[in-house]
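In the laboratory, one determines a bound structure by crystallizing the protein with its ligand and collecting diffraction data. In a computational setting the workflow is compressed into a single prediction: the sequence and the ligand go in, and a structural description comes out. We illustrate the idea with pantoate.
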Amino acid sequence: MSKTAFVPTMGALHAGHLSLIELAKKYSDDVVVSIFVNPLQFENKDDLAKYPRDIDGDSQLARSAGATEIWAPTYDEIYPDNPTIISAGALADKYEGVNRPGHFDGVVTVVDRLFKKVQPQYAIFGEKDFQQLFIIKEWVRKNQIPVEIISAPLIRDSDGLALSSRNIRLGDDGRRTALVISRALHQASVSNHPEERMLEILKSEPGFTLDYAVVIDEESFELATPGTTKRRALIAGWVNGVRLLDNMAMSVGA
Ligand code: PAF
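The predicted complex, in structure-token form:
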């Protein structure tokens, strides 16, 4: 029986998603892409209503990247019952979870439903949503779910901005301002004091409103300590009313 590699998405596909599909292709010829805007992970109903939906355009893009099956289920197909919400654990209340209560519980609940329908051997998640990736890996490990989680590197535009469906809402000025994030990450990655360096650079940009900038231990998601070997800086903040997320592995520094 051929193995299935699965790329769950909410649509609005961009080059970042297409890189997930291309990576999936390395694991199997049978690549399923789901397109489902999951209401359970939106704490803000307005955000849910405004979420871009273009199933035909997305299907074409997904196929051009190598998807063999596009699955765009309805709400009732995913949640025929009144769904029991799966807890994403304590990490769900930190960082992204502070401003988005219930968000990661909604993500884990839908991923559970999607996995049960698709029954993949592999599932690909992007490092762009580093906390989501960590939470899903932990949930799979703790519950012995027989799906191998493959992480795919974050993709940047040529100017350094991490790809996101939200970038389009930034405008030209906002985009220039947003570049402070990747600049801060690059500078931090070669600093002995990455957190201080990031904060210094981010605070020098008046158009950027900081949510958090931290360096964590990739293995535990706790704040990095001097003994941490695999550290990653995470930044979240706002530009022109658009929430942006980015992260980068840190090569040196405490
Ligand atoms: O990362 C996303 O696009 C979503 O959170 C996911 C994993 C498709 C679940 O809805």
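The mean pLDDT is 96. Keep in mind that any predicted model is a hypothesis to be tested, not a measurement.
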